[in-house]
Amino acid sequence: MVLFYRPRRNIGSEEVLAGIGGPPNKWRFKRTNCPYSFLSVSDNRSSDLVLLFLLSLIRGRQRTLAMTQYQILVSSFTEEIYTLLFDDSKGTLGLVSKVQVGHHPSWITFHPKDRSVVFAGLEQSDGKVAELKFDQHGKGEVVGKVESGGRDPCSLLATKDELLVANYSSGVIRIIALADSTPYLTSSSRTIQFSGSGPNKERQEGSHPHQVVIIDDREELLVPDLGADRVLRFKKGTDGDWNPCGHIQYELGGGPRHIAYCNGELFTLLELSSKVARHSFSPNLGSPEFITSTATMSSPLPQPNDMLAAEILVPQSNSSFPTPYIYLSNRNDPSPAGDIISIFDFTSDPNKLQLIAEVRSGLKHVRAISFGGPDDKYLLAGGVSGGGVKVFERIDGGKGLKEVAKNEGVVAPTGFLWK
């Protein structure tokens, strides 16, 4: 007995072909309102199988439709973390809930094994880290808090057994041990104190670690230090501690803020000079090799100005987007059309960074962007100073963006997590 089918390409137009073994002259076509059409058979013994098969297709279709909705957590420069629901079939981005956390929960990160748990850095003078537990509906509650070890924690990264915290204003990295079950935060910790300064007396009077990133290919921890114009490198020793193993120097006054790694190359966003730098950083290289740097925009304003580069991402290539591109955000553009999201090609020429698109976001002070959805199809962006949160869809193989949803009610969004 054979069972086969063909799903419709367009619901309501083409029929599905399905059948059960038996003489073809006993089959008849039938059109239905279901997204699947099928063939019924005069052989009554097969009717139960047809029904079971059809029900399984409907359930599969329902599961597919359900996946068009995505929960998104939004950190902010308020006292709240928001939960939004993005429905890509309707083009809506609605508020589900929000939870009071504390002063400026500006950076959030998942527990690597328990995605119901999120850690948030409270960006304040007596820095703290909060642990939150979210239910399946996106409602969260604070289940624990510990000291961040410094002032203004601005970046967090959780591994299986520790939480890395960058304290911007005090130049301290705190490494907090994580328990085996929630609440994961413990009082056990150790710190790494940074030192250094740069020529910009207002922004580089001291060391300012701005991000913590682990490069798996090299088994290294990288920390951009905006205050000292360098990215510090660490390797974990046999004792479990992160030990210094060198640094990457950048142009004086550039202010490295965030980094992205892809296929043996390191891309660094320089906040103060609004530039992006490219280094070769493959695992077989002992030290990174500088390749080039360029402005983050086609027409940058003369220095000094209030514009500041903010975020840089390089989503991994996949079947939908086989060519990787660099996406970065710029803040405080005076244009009424809002801040620019820039897209760079880095694969066409190994020695260059080619600006291929600038997308006006309609947002003010775009601090963070984030990819999510199937094959990282969607990009989230938020305006701290206006515009709320928007969802953009990647088009033209990733070389462009188009707006598909927005929520203007979210206040001062600073970061995102796709649940």
Question: Can you describe what's shown?
Answer:
By secondary structure, the protein is mainly β. The protein has a domain at 3-65. Helix content is 5%, strand content 49%. The protein is built from one helix and 32 strands. The protein has one helix at 47-66, and strands at residues 3-4, 19-20, 27-30, 38-41, 69-76, 80-87, 92-100, 105-110, 117-122, 128-134, 140-147, 153-158, 162-167, 172-178, 185-193, 213-215, 220-225, 230-236, 242-249, 256-262, 265-270, 275-280, 289-295, 308-313, 326-331, 340-345, 354-360, 364-372, 378-386, 388-395, 400-407, 413-418. The strands form nine sheets. A four-stranded antiparallel β-sheet has the order 7-6-5-32, with no helix packed on it. It has a four-stranded antiparallel β-sheet with strand order 8-9-10-11, with no helix packed on it. Strand 16 (213-215) and strand 17 form a beta hairpin. The longest helix has 20 residues, at 47-66. 43% of the residues are buried. Mean pLDDT is 89; it is low at 1-42 and 61-66.
Q: Can you lay out the helices and strands and say which pair or pack?
A:
Layout (H helix, E strand, L loop, with lengths): L2 E2 L14 E2 L6 E4 L7 E4 L5 H20 L2 E8 L3 E8 L4 E9 L4 E6 L6 E6 L5 E7 L5 E8 L5 E6 L3 E6 L4 E7 L6 E9 L19 E3 L4 E6 L4 E7 L5 E8 L6 E7 L2 E6 L4 E6 L8 E7 L12 E6 L12 E6 L8 E6 L8 E7 L3 E9 L5 E9 L1 E8 L4 E8 L5 E6 L1
Antiparallel strand pairs: 1-2, 3-4, 5-6, 5-32, 6-7, 8-9, 9-10, 10-11, 12-13, 13-14, 14-15, 16-17, 17-18, 18-19, 20-21, 21-22, 22-23, 24-25, 25-26, 26-27, 28-29, 29-30, 30-31
Family: Belongs to the cycloisomerase 2 family.
Organism: Agaricus bisporus var. burnettii
GO molecular function, one term: 6-phosphogluconolactonase activity
